Amino acid sequence: MSSCGSRGYLSRIEASAYLRELGLVVAPSTLAKLAVTGGGPPFVKFMSRALYEPRDVSAWAATKISAKRRTTSSAETNPHE
Fold first, then answer.
1. How distant is the alpha carbon of residue 32 from its chain centre?
2. Neighbouring C-beta atoms of residue 11, cutoff 10 Å
3. I want to staple 43 with a disulfide (CB 3.0 to 4.6 A). Which of 25, 47, 50, 68 is the partner?
4. What pLDDT score was predicted for residue 4?
5. Domain layout of the chain by residue ranges
6. How many CA atoms lie within 13 A of 50 on its CB side?
7. Model confidence over 27-52: pLDDT tens digits?
8. Which contacts qualify for 42-48: CB closer than 8 Å, 24 or more apart?
9. pLDDT at 73
10. Would you say 13 and 51 are in contact if contact means Cβ atoms under 8 Å apart?
11. What is the tens place of the pLDDT at every residue in 16-28?
């Protein structure tokens, strides 16, 4: 739908490929599921198709990346401490 150089709206397949270019693997089917259940990147509808803006996809992905850790067992900050 659009080329890598100048991106307009992205289809789910293109949004998935865009995330893969950033080193983040999210399947188009996962984006589809998140469009139904919530929690995915914002999208608009064009007829029956969901379309994503690259900046929205990037911003959404950034919210899913944790802070740097030194071990896999690093716990999240405990609000009760």
1. 11
2. 17
3. 50
4. 45
5. 12-63
6. 19
7. 999 999 999 999 999 999 999 999 99
8. 44/9, 46/9
9. 85
10. no
11. 999 999 999 999 9
